[in-house]
Amino acid sequence: MASVFFTLLLLYATGVSGVPQLEPLNVTVLRGSEARFNISLSEAWYSMSWMLKTVLVLTINSGTGVSEHNSRFSVKNYSSADIYCWEFIIWDVWRNDSGDVSCGVQEKPTQTAQLFVQESGTVRIVGGNMTVAQGHQAIVQCEASGWFPEPTVSWVVDGVVVDQNSYNSSSEALDSLYNSISLLTVRGVNSVQVKCLASVSALTTPLSSSIYLVVEPQDWTVLIAVVCSIGGFALLVLLILGIVFCCKRRKEAKSSYQKEMGRTRSQIEMSGGAVGQRQGKENPAYVIDGQTSVTHSEFNDSGYIQTNYTKHFEIPDLVNGNQAANGHASAYNILGVTGVRKHRHVTIV
User: Fold this and answer.
1) pTM of the entire structure?
2) DSSP assignment letter at 159
3) I need a surface site. Which of 25, 29, 162, 290 has the fewest CB within 10 A?
């Protein structure tokens, strides 16, 4: 109705009299809604016809009235005493209604406007409400399906419109309809509402889908458990390496000791022959019973000259009854005294 009054005012302002005026020249509507066009003129007329693309859909005769060809098309008369004005309405428009809308009045030039029919699809955020740890990022995906033309997708986070450079959107056509996907990355600082909006020019209000992004305080339990596990494993490895190192050192020390003992044993065995040759020799200091001296020409094992002895003392026989009773008697007697037991002494070098 407002467009009709706007057309009448325009006619009064321009003073157009003979040429019909068609308004608006471009109409964009959603599929399933109605499209409205207004024709106005200041001169009397007898017949009017309306065409959609190349098909005659409605005619009006000033004497007989409207001749309807289809129930989807109708007109309303807003004429006054000075201005003739009619409104043409297309109900329940389809996608294939898009094209020229023409109006012809008698022999006047035909006036043509353009009709564009769009389709509104659906929009949703995949997965619903989300939970993210504080400081981490969450990727929110929005799907807009079944739109024509390609929809415009936008985001609002916590009531603030997100800059277009902060998200990525892509579209593809399927059966002449567009499906769009948009990805938004949100850093978890505070719990916020995230809203995805999809729209085409015919929509007065964009369609939207919203979720809540819940931000939880960072849980250090898992991190502590991981650190403790890694630390325990590292300590275990160090302990094993220490044990292996100690065992290796001990084994090396034992091997060195055995080598040293073997070297010593070899040296003893090498010198054993010389020792064996000296065993069993007579001791020059040995005195045979009755012998009282040793010649000075004899040598001991060390190669030194043995000193001559004129007397040889022996340990008295303490078992003798006379000397056992007399504790103050001399413990030694001169060689040849009766009651003295002779002892043989052998020294082996």
Assistant:
1) 0.57
2) T
3) 290
CA pair distance 114, 98, nearest whole angstrom:
8
Task: Cite the beta strand spans of 287-347 per DSSP E.
Answer: none
Token pair, residue 121, equals 């699809």
SS3 (DSSP) at 175: coil
Residues facing 26 on adjacent strands = 114
pLDDT at 228: 87
Sheet holding 73-77, edge to edge: 21-23, 35-41, 84-90, 73-77
What's the chain's Rg over C-alpha atoms? 65
pLDDT > 60? residue 183: yes
DSSP E strands: which ranges in the chain?
Answer: 21-23, 26-30, 35-41, 47-52, 55-61, 65-68, 73-77, 84-90, 99-105, 111-118, 122-125, 130-133, 137-147, 152-157, 160-161, 167-174, 177-187, 192-199, 207-216
Cα separation, 170 vs 72, in Å, equals 37
Check if the beta carbon of residue 144 is closer than 8 Å to that of residue 180: yes
- Check if the beta carbon of residue 180 is closer than 8 Å to that of residue 169: yes
